[in-house]
Write a structure and sequence with these properties.
Bound molecules: zinc ion
Oligomer: single chain
Number of helices: 12
Helix content: 25-40%
Structural class: alpha/beta
Distance between the termini: 65 Å
Number of strands: 16
Order of helices and strands: HEEEEEHHEHEEEHEHEHEHEHHHHEEE
Strand order of the largest sheet: 3-2-1-4-14-15-16
Largest sheet: 7 strands, mixed
Radius of gyration: 24 Å
């Protein structure tokens, strides 16, 4: 009997030990980043770019501690215990921001775009998003503004997982479900298909439904509000009154409003209604852009490269030319612009990061100077995202989101493709080999 008891006790102890061993094996398998955020890091920056002013300061030292930049200057004393990161031969600047992403979305071509509501669960969307944001971060894109199409708030979950430190990733600001007039972002489907768009969209018609939809999104964790007003093939778009209501409700909660719209009266309503940004705006007239400039409305133009449109769009050439012309006019008029890609399709043999840099050729072709492109990707986007007090510059007190590359992007913007150093919130994500 005693023998049996001793055996049982020994067995119980063995079980407990096994359980502890399994737990620690489990916790080891959780992919936590090797955090360097608590240590003091001194970065020797040979060429430090200030994208706000388009200037370069030589031989600077940046001191990073507790996720933030604590000091910056030419003659700084480097603390004895600091880890030194030598970027003496590099061009150093704040992390890049993309103001129009759909990170949880990735389809092979435009025809497949709206099947994604049906094909992929929220869980799959979150995993697609994790893969995409890690690819972007590794390339130097340290902040994304995700403007919807994430099923049931997959991007909110992704943001939470990254903020909790379970995974390394960029800062994510997310719109939650997109608010649109009845029918979301599709048209011409049979009644029998059912309202399947509601997986990604909230139908809201009239000011009161818009108010409820905004509040719903805020409740479920949205950082901004995204409306889709104008959809090709759909007769309705938001009235001035509806836009005003969305803006009033969102601003009351200190959130910005981004509206997908192309032009015409729909765009007039968006601009006059006080939205913070026009997304796309491919049909904007010069007068409309002048009004945007006057009112301080941002344009996030998402001017697709022709090769991106060509996957399943027979009018790719004409459309790309139209977008380029609108970007050229917008720059000339001086409307405030944020850099945003709107990548939703995948291209074979190209990552989302490669695809992001493909937009640079469009901006160059539209005559936007390199320093201005860098400013749109950093200073302007930080302002649009309402995070200038935290990110978008290399200044003491701001989070250490820092990238570097071997060539000067102010003279050759394509140098961004060669980013080989990435620091996110003071943690080194990538170092030159
Ligand atoms: Zn979009």
């Amino acid at each position: 009997m005693r023998c049996t008891l001793r055996f049982l006790l020994r067995k119980a102890a063995a079980c407990a030990l096994f359980a502890i061993a399994s737990l620690s094996a489990y916790s080891q398998s959780v992919p936590a980043p090797a955090s360097t955020a608590e240590r003091t890091i001194a970065i020797r920056a040979g060429n430090l770019i200030d994208p706000k002013n388009g200037t370069v300061a030589k031989n600077q030292v940046i001191i990073v501690k507790d996720k933030k930049i604590v000091a910056k200057g030419a003659d700084l004393a480097i603390p004895k215990d600091a880890e030194i990161v030598d970027l003496s031969n590099s061009w150093v600047m704040p992390g890049i921001m993309d103001a129009h992403t759909h990170v949880t979305w990735g389809v092979p071509n435009w025809q497949k775009l709206y099947y994604d509501y049906l094909d992929n669960s929220t869980g799959v969307r979150a995993l697609v998003g994790l893969r995409t944001v890690q690819t972007l971060l590794n390339a130097g894109i340290t902040t994304v503004r995700d403007v919807g199409n994430d099923g049931n708030y997959a991007a909110v979950d992704l943001r939470k997982a990254i903020d909790a430190g379970w995974f390394i990733g960029p800062t994510i600001l997310t719109a939650g479900k997109i608010i649109a007039p009845f029918g979301g972002q599709i048209s011409d489907i049979p009644l029998e298909a059912g309202p399947y768009w509601q997986f990604d969209y909230i139908d809201a018609d009239g000011p009161e439904q818009i108010r409820v939809a905004v509040r719903k999104n805020l409740f479920y964790g949205a950082d901004l509000i995204k409306l889709v007003s104008e959809v090709s093939g759909k007769p309705d778009y938001y009235s001035l009154d509806e836009i005003r209501t969305a803006v009033e409700e969102a601003h009351h909660a200190n959130r910005a409003v981004a509206v997908h719209v192309y032009g015409g009266e729909a765009a007039d309503n968006v601009i006059r209604g006080g939205a913070d940004s026009v997304e796309h705006g491919f049909d904007l007239t010069d007068d409309q852009m002048r009004l945007m400039k006057e009112k301080g409305t941002f344009l996030v133009g998402t001017e697709f490269p022709e090769a991106h449109l060509a996957v399943g769009d027979p009018d790719a050439k004409e459309e790309a030319a139209k977008y380029l012309d609108r970007l050229r006019r917008a720059y000339k008029i001086g409307v405030r612009m944020g850099f945003g890609t709107d990548i939703v399709t995948d291209l074979p043999n190209e990552t989302r990061a490669d695809m992001t840099w493909n937009y640079l050729a469009v901006w160059r072709a539209a005559g936007v100077p390199n320093p201005e492109i860098l400013k749109c990707m950093t200073t302007n986007n930080a302002e649009l995202l309402r995070i200038s007090a935290q990110r978008g510059a290399i200044e003491p007190g701001l989070y250490a989101d820092i990238v570097a590359m071997p060539r000067n992007p102010l003279t050759d913007i394509e140098s961004l493709r060669a980013i080989d150093f990435v620091m996110k919130n003071g943690t080194v994500v990538r170092k030159p080999k």
